[in-house]
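Lab manual, section 2.4: Encoding a predicted structure.

Procedure: take the sequence of the chain (265 residues), apply the prediction step described in section 2.3, and record the output as structure tokens. A sample record is shown.
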Amino acid sequence: MIISTYNWPEALELCLKSSLSQTVLPDEILIADDGSDERTARLVEQIAEGASIPIVHVWHEDTGFRLGSIRNKAIARATGDYIIQIDGDVILPPDFIRDHLSTARPRRFVSGSRVLLGPDYSALLLQQRSIDVKVWQKDVCNKLNAIRMPWISPLFGRYKPGVTRGCNMAFWRDDAICVNGYNELIQGWGSEDYEFGMRLSHIGTHHFALKLAGCVYHIYHNVRARDQSVTNQVLANLTRSRRLLRCKHGISQYLDPIAAPLSEE
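Recorded output:
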């Protein structure tokens, strides 16, 4: 499992606590850290000491919003075949990993839904350092997404082109490498998940929208600056219109040359 984060150790603590409280634990956790200060490093070290699974801190220098780059570095370090990807500002229900693994299929990548915790309730959970989310609180949106019915979830999930949610996503590592991972020309907020998902679709890997299972609880925060969103959307639209399979600036630079693809488009 990969957890992306940037300078919010209080939220990351809850995310990690919920990740280590799963009914089915991930084989490993990689923290994709986009340049956080030493507080995050201390937190990861502290939690890793008491964990029963490996927790690896993958960090690079803070030179701006480079989510795609740090995710590529974490995917390159991953040892598992199947990657569940979340953001460090979510809390996971106990069966989150189990639900994602149950829907893993060849030639498929999956995105799940989220419940939005409001500012007051988020502040309370952070203050109490609690992962015990009460979904039916007043200060919670998208409550119905929290309904879990795994026995009928396959009937409500559907193949859905377009929107991909990187804060709750799963894919095969080999598929990610095939499309050369995230496009590192996309910097700043917006479109990195959508563009990545488009290339996965173009190689014949179908996007499956998971319902009634595999939801996350999103901790409230202020909206990031979106000054690069137009440029990023242009890059994503080019990928869609030209049906590009690979990006030039991606994960291959972090892989063993023997394992990396021989050519780029």
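Check your result against the sample. Confidence is low (pLDDT under 50) at residues 258-265.
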